[in-house]
Amino acid sequence: MAGHGAEEHPHGADRLCEAGDRVYSRAVRRGRVPRRDAEPVPCLLELALLHPDPDDMDWLVPTSPQEVMTRLLRGMYDEVSASQRRVGSAVAAFEWYAGLGRQVQPAASAAEGPAIRVLDGLARIQAAMDEATQACTTEVLTVQPGGIRREAELSEGLHRALALRGRGVRMRDLYTHVARHGQGLLTYLELMGDAVEARTLDEVIDRLILFDRTVAFIPANTDRTMALELRHPAIVEYLVTVFERLWRLAIPLTAPLPDTGIEGISHREQSIAALLAEGHQDAVIAERLGISVRTCRAHIARLSETLGAASRTQLGVRIAQVGLDGPPQVAAPLSVPRRESRTAR
User: Which InterPro entries does the record associate with it (predicted)?
Assistant: First the structure.
């Protein structure tokens, strides 16, 4: 009964339901009411406003209104006292934490900003890059994936590069080998002169820009409309280490690519052969080397022709037989079967 009443009469003695008000008022006026009259309002028993008549259990007698009022006031006083204690505890805790904040030095100055910041939108990315460029005094390291750099991309960052050159900042850039064939990049490097040193690899990591080894920028989504600005020393140091190791493996842009040592197979085709041997699909190979899928398939066709392979399965076997299943490297001259002479690539 009590549980049922709690569902239908969810209130306290300070706000009786209409039915409970009628029955309790009647009990106060008459001195008691039959128990059956209180069955529709079990809240009166639950709130101790009615209680059994000790002389006759079929009747209920009311608790005096004065006692009910005293009980309500006592409850209100207890609630106010508890609230005051909670407020006092909160104020004391606030003062304690504030004292700790005054004792602890911040990990980074306000000028350095947060350790990791998400830049949403090209405008915010450009603004953050411009700010880092203005603060840079020593060195910029960049990794530029993809193939031939579009002139629009080079022009977009030209004002920053010229500003850095004007302050004597040294720049080192990593590209894929394919970027060597872009006239825009060659023009850019000629314009920058000794301020920029460029090297290339078969494939590089995703875009990375490091200023003074203190702040780094990396993409945060595939279309590069979001970026992360990183200032955490451990993260930045890790990215610098990655760059330096790639730099040692890379070939200066002013130096020619090494000969494969295998007649009729170019350096790029050797790279494609190694990735084919690893089981990669054409689209993945093209993306990693910075070329189009169509160009990649044209190179694969020439590989098949040069190695005398009639199918992809046979091509895989021939790649392994002539030692093209490893990373590109200078090898001793090898002769491979050729179906017919071809024009130079």
Answer: Sig_transdc_resp-reg_C-effctor, TrmB-like, Tscrpt_reg_LuxR_C, WH-like_DNA-bd_sf
Residue labelled with tokens 């204690």: 85
Alpha carbon 11 to chain centroid distance?
49
> Could you give the CA distance from residue 91 to residue 83 in angstroms, rounded to a whole number?
12
Cα–Cα distance between 86 and 107 in angstroms, integer? 33
- Cβ(217)–Cβ(228) below 8 Å: yes
Reported residue count of the chain is: 345
Token pair of 160 as six digits: 């920053």
**Predicted TM-score of the model (pTM):** 0.55
CA 22, distance to chain mean position in Å, is 64
Cβ neighbors of 172 (< 8 A, separation 6 or more) are 139, 140, 141, 142, 196, 197, 198, 199, 247
**Structural element, H or E, at residue 61:** strand 56-62
Q: What is the pLDDT of residues 90-135, one digit of tens each?
A: 777 766 767 776 665 555 444 445 788 999 999 999 999 999 999 9
Both structure tokens of 288: 């990693």
**What is the maximum span of the chain, computed from C-alpha positions, in angstroms?**
122
CA distance 186 to 189: 5
